[in-house]
Every structure is written in structure tokens, then in C-alpha cells.
Design a protein that fits this description.
The relative contact order is 0.33. The strands form 2 sheets. Strands 2, 4, 5, 6, 9, 10 and 11 form a 7-stranded mixed β-sheet that branches. The chain has a 4-stranded antiparallel β-sheet with strand order 1-3-8-7, with no helix packed on it. With 113 residues, it is mostly beta strands.
Length: 113
């Protein structure tokens, strides 16, 4: 099983980024997935989750209305569209499969004020 995140980078406050998570070696279409993030000095926190079919999503209160999680089961990818980014969104973002307890390596997102 492998999860590979991409799309992180440096952006100014108010900007946007789109993260992607490419999965392999797993039955992607039947597994719920999630995005977590870990800010410096803070515990890893759930950002968003999505059901196996993509029809159900959940978001942390801090990102509701700004972030959108989606998935493409045909391409075995999950995405996180992040708009109206704030400095407090700065963190390493991780892709996670709860059913397999598997994490990606993370991608750094830095939002400058």
C-alpha cells in the first residue's frame, strides 16, 4: 500500500492550493479516506474525510466553506481544494486511509501573511 501526496507549496494569505493523494496497492474504491494536518508544535488533526463513493464528506470547523475534499475512484486519487488560505493553515498535510491505518509521507503547505 502506498499513498503519495503532492501539490503543497508556499502561497500568500487568501490564495489557493490543490493537494492530491495518489494511492496504489489497495482496493481504493471501497475505502473511506481522509486528510489530516500537523502544524508545528501541535497534534495532528483531521481536516476532511470522504466516504468510499465520495457522496459523504466531513470537515473540521476551521476549514468549512474554504476546503473541498473529492476523489476519483477511477484514477485512485483524492484531492483537497484549499481556498482562502490563512497563515494558520500552515502545516504538513497527510493523506490517510483509516481502514488500513496507512499514512502518506505528507506535503508541506505554508501560507504567508
Amino acid at each position: 500500500v502506498q499513498l503519495v501526496e503532492s501539490g503543497g507549496g508556499l502561497v500568500q494569505a487568501g490564495g489557493s492550493l490543490r493537494l492530491s493523494c495518489a494511492a496504489s496497492g489497495m482496493p481504493f474504491s471501497i475505502l473511506p479516506m481522509a486528510w489530516y494536518r500537523a502544524a508545528p508544535g501541535k497534534q495532528r488533526e483531521l481536516v476532511a474525510s470522504i466516504s468510499s463513493g465520495g457522496g459523504s464528506t466531513n470537515y473540521a470547523d476551521s476549514v468549512k466553506g474554504r476546503f473541498t475534499v473529492s476523489r476519483d475512484n477511477g484514477k485512485k486519487t483524492m484531492s483537497l481544494q484549499m481556498n482562502s488560505l490563512r497563515p494558520e493553515d500552515t502545516a504538513v498535510y497527510y493523506c490517510f486511509v483509516p481502514g488500513l491505518r496507512t499514512w502518506g509521507q505528507g506535503t508541506q503547505v505554508t501560507v504567508s501573511s
